[in-house]
Each structure stands twice: as structure tokens, then as C-alpha cells.
Design a protein that fits this description.
The chain is an alpha+beta fold. The protein has one domain: Cytochrome p450 (Orthogonal Bundle). It is about 50% helix and about 10% strand. The protein has 16 helices and ten strands. Strands 1-2-8-5-3 form a five-stranded mixed β-sheet. It has a three-stranded antiparallel β-sheet with strand order 4-10-9. A two-stranded antiparallel ribbon has the order 6-7. The longest helix is centred in the middle third of the chain and has 32 residues. The mean pLDDT is about 90. The structure holds protoporphyrin IX containing FE (HEM). Protoporphyrin IX containing FE (HEM) binds next to helix 12 and helix 16.
């Protein structure tokens, strides 16, 4: 799963899995490496799995007796890889800036960033096509999370280059990928070191202060947290915005509803959630490890095996969603799993929803004639497992 054939039509594969192999064994093809997992594709099973105490995140990636190199250990020490008390403690240390109250006042900042970005792109619509993903969605979302976490101007370009290289490592060699990981860890370490001497009004400074106040947050945890928040904060969100624009341009009737009621906040909110259901940027969570043999659908998942809930397949389960293949921005209720479920439910969901809503409002408000610059059949997804990402989204601002 993850190759070109899969990327050509993911929903068809999701349907097949749900119907014929609700607990199926697949190979995830990450390019530089591959991984065998048991994949769960029905909604009820995914939800059950995400709260099943027999499945843990932390043992993943560490086969008994195998020494994991420091840089790999670090990028695998993110919040979504922790369990139990350790997970609760770390999550509570970083949760404060992500509460709905703290987020709403960032809306104005997102609006200004989006407007400035469009100004810089030649917002009068006379220019040629732009790549909405790279030229608009990425810079806006990266600036928001970098400001919040505390990535200073001097580290911003290096950090982003590291993440981009890490992601593009999916199609490269294992050696290249490892080199990118090492580089990214070095950049993050520099950033944390800088904050120790130059504190600011940001999340990293807050974490350093918590560490100094005696909360057990060791250096590895601190670096892993910074790396994961910045990465999780924009890699996902800029794809959410891009996927939303693609889905809306592909469904003029739905875009028409928003154009007819541009100030209807509730409709915009519901539209963003429908995108998270229909084209979720993250299509599966991190695989969890079975800590004992688990009987499921007449099969035994052996202790030690990796199990993956396929959120994108659950999101189109006809047992839960009426006409699941239909993109419907008024869908209600919409209990999708695009932001996960259970204790690992996305920490940044409220921030991401707000960013997407405001950025899209600004985009469609400023450019009523926005249109695709290529035929819709030419829009291609990247052949990556566990992501719904367009290679690019060429549009004419109009
Ligand atoms: C989980 C941060 C945007 C989907 C998480 C976690 C963090 C995080 C820290 C791990 C939580 C835990 O394990 O306790 C953020 C931030 C975002 C953001 C800061 C933006 C500001 C998004 C977006 C999506 C998304 C746009 C997709 C629509 C998910 C999913 C999980 C998750 C599916 C669960 C992963 C799992 O169970 O392994 N997010 N996220 N996130 N996030 Fe986000």
C-alpha cells in the first residue's frame, strides 16, 4: 500500500479492504523502507482499536535486542508514540496553547498572514498559475506553528528544509533518509539550545521552564516534542487546506453554498470537517503493537505484530456515513476519524480547523474566480502510504 496503483484511486482500495479484508495484512511501502502491518478498515473496528489497552504505541520500532540509533529514537519519541502515564504527562505539558479559547484570538493573525501571502503572489489575479499548496497553504501554516512553538527567523528555513527532506526521503534511499533525520535532529537541538539563552513568549521556552521547575522533561523529550509539534503542525494543516481547495473546486455545487453564505461560520466549520473526512491528510495513525495475541474477525493477530487503523477507510464506511463517497459540506452529524480518536486525538485539531477555515475564507473571498489551472484528471496524489497529499495544486487566482 502506498505505491502508484494505490495512489491512483485510494477510495477503491479502502472499499475493497472494508468488504473483503476488514483485518488485512498489507505492506506499507515508504520507498526508503517498508513495513508489514495488519490494517483495520471498518469504522467500528478502528474506533475500538484506538482505545484497546492490548495495543500500545511505545514498543513500536524496537524489536527485542536491537539497538536503535539516537537520531531514530528521537524522531520516534513523539507524543503519538507514548502510552499511559508518560503520554498523559507529556501531553498536559504542551496542551495549554491548543485550547479553543487560546486559539480563537490567533484567527486575526492567520487572516493577516493569508492576505499578505496573496498580496505577495500578485493578488490582482493577473499572474500565471500558482501552486496553492507550496505558494499559499504551506507558508501560512508554517508561519503560524513556527511562531507558536518559537522557531526563530534564523532557524526557520533550515528547519523546514529538514522536514521537507525527511518527507521526500520516502522516495529515496535509506541512507539519504537517515542523513535527513540526523540533520533535522541537529537543527532542532540548535533551536532548543538557542531558547535556553534567548527565552521568548513561546512553547519551547515554556517547556524549558517546566523542565527547570523540576518536571521530568529530559533533553530527548524536549527535542522530540519540538520536532513533532512543528512537523505535525504544518505538514498536516497545509495539506488540509490544499485538499479542501481541491475538493471545493472539484464540487462547484458545494463551493456555491459557501459563496452564497460567505459569513456563515458554521457552514465553513462543517466544510473543513467534511474535508477531514473525505480527503484526510493523515490516512492512518501510527501503527500500534499488540502486547498479546488478539482474536479478531476469526484471525489471530500475534503478540508483537503492528496494527494500523486506516482512518481514511473508516471515514467512508457506509455503516456510519450516508452516501460516504459524496462530498457534502452540510453533512451532520459527521463523526469522522480524520483527527484520530481516543487519548491520541489530535492535539492541534482546533488550531488546524481554525487555520483552514480562515485561510480558505480569505482565499475564496479575495479570488471569486479562483479555478484549477489543469484538468482535474491531471491532479495526482503522492504515492505515499498514510497521507493524502496532492503533488501540487496549480490554480489561477482570478
Ligand atoms: C495527533 C499536533 C494538525 C491529524 C496529533 C498529535 C499532536 C498533533 C501533537 C499527537 C497527540 C497524542 O498522541 O496525544 C497537531 C498540530 C496541528 C495538527 C499542532 C496543527 C496545528 C492536524 C491535522 C490533521 C491531524 C490538520 C488532519 C486532518 C492527526 C491525527 C492524529 C493526530 C489523525 C492521531 C495520530 C495517532 O493516533 O497516531 N496531532 N496536529 N492533525 N493528528 Fe494532529
Amino acid at each position: 500500500m502506498g505505491g502508484a496503483e494505490f495512489a491512483a484511486d485510494p477510495p477503491a482500495h479502502y472499499t475493497w479492504l472494508r468488504e473483503h479484508a476488514p483485518l488485512g495484512q498489507v505492506r506499507l511501502d515508504f520507498g526508503a523502507f517498508a513495513q508489514d502491518v495488519w490494517v483495520v478498515s471498518r469504522y467500528a473496528d478502528c474506533k475500538a482499536l484506538l482505545t484497546d489497552p492490548r495495543l500500545l504505541r511505545s514498543p513500536y520500532g524496537a524489536p527485542p535486542g536491537v539497538e536503535i540509533p539516537e537520531h531514530i529514537r528521537l524522531v520516534s519519541s513523539t507524543l503519538d508514540m507514548k502510552d499511559g502515564d508518560e503520554h498523559r504527562r507529556l501531553r498536559s505539558l504542551v496542551a495549554a496553547p491548543f485550547t479553543p479559547k487560546r486559539i480563537e484570538h490567533l484567527g486575526e493573525q492567520v487572516r493577516v498572514l493569508a492576505e499578505r501571502r496573496l498580496d505577495a503572489l500578485g493578488g490582482d489575479g493577473d499572474g500565471g498559475p500558482i501552486d496553492l499548496r507550496q505558494d499559499f497553504a504551506l507558508p501560512v501554516t508554517y508561519t503560524v506553528i513556527a511562531d507558536l512553538v518559537g522557531v526563530g527567523e534564523q532557524d526557520r528555513v533550515r528547519f523546514q528544509q529538514g522536514v521537507t527532506a525527511l518527507m521526500s526521503g520516502f522516495s529515496g534511499s535509506r541512507e539519504d533518509w537517515e542523513a535527513h533525520v540526523r540533520d533535522l535532529v541537529a537543527v532542532t537541538r540548535d533551536l532548543v539550545a538557542r531558547k535556553r539563552t534567548e527565552p521568548g513568549d513561546d512553547l519551547v521556552t515554556g517547556l524549558i521552564e517546566a523542565e527547570e521547575a523540576g518536571d521530568r522533561l529530559d533533553d530527548t523529550e524536549l527535542v522530540a516534542m519540538v520536532f513533532s509539534l512543528v512537523t505535525a503542525g504544518y505538514e498536516t494543516t497545509y495539506n488540509l487546506i490544499t485538499n479542501a481547495a481541491a475538493a471545493l473546486l472539484d464540487h462547484p455545487d458545494q463551493l456555491g453554498l459557501l459563496r452564497a453564505a460567505p459569513d456563515d461560520e458554521a457552514l465553513w466549520r462543517s466544510a473543513v470537517d467534511e474535508v477531514a473526512r473525505y480527503l484526510p491528510p493523515i490516512t492512518g495513525t501510527r501503527p500500534a503493537t499488540a502486547v498479546e495475541d488478539i482474536e479478531w474477525h476469526g484471525q489471530t493477530v500475534p503478540a508483537g505484530a503492528s496494527v494500523l487503523p486506516l482512518l481514511a477507510a473508516a471515514n467512508r464506511d457506509p455503516d456510519v456515513f450516508e452516501e460516504p463517497e459524496r462530498f457534502d459540506i452540510t453533512r451532520s452529524p459527521n463523526p469522522h476519524l480524520g483527527f484520530g480518536h481516543g487519548v491520541h486525538f489530535c492535539l492541534g485539531a482546533n488550531l488546524a480547523r481554525m487555520e483552514a477555515r480562515v485561510a480558505l475564507q480569505v482565499l475564496f473571498e479575495r479570488h471569486p474566480g479562483l479555478s484549477l489551472a489543469v484538468d482535474r484528471t491531471e491532479l495526482a496524489l503522492e504515492p505515499m502510504p498514510l497521507w493524502t497529499r496532492f503533488r501540487e495544486l496549480p490554480v489561477v487566482l482570478g
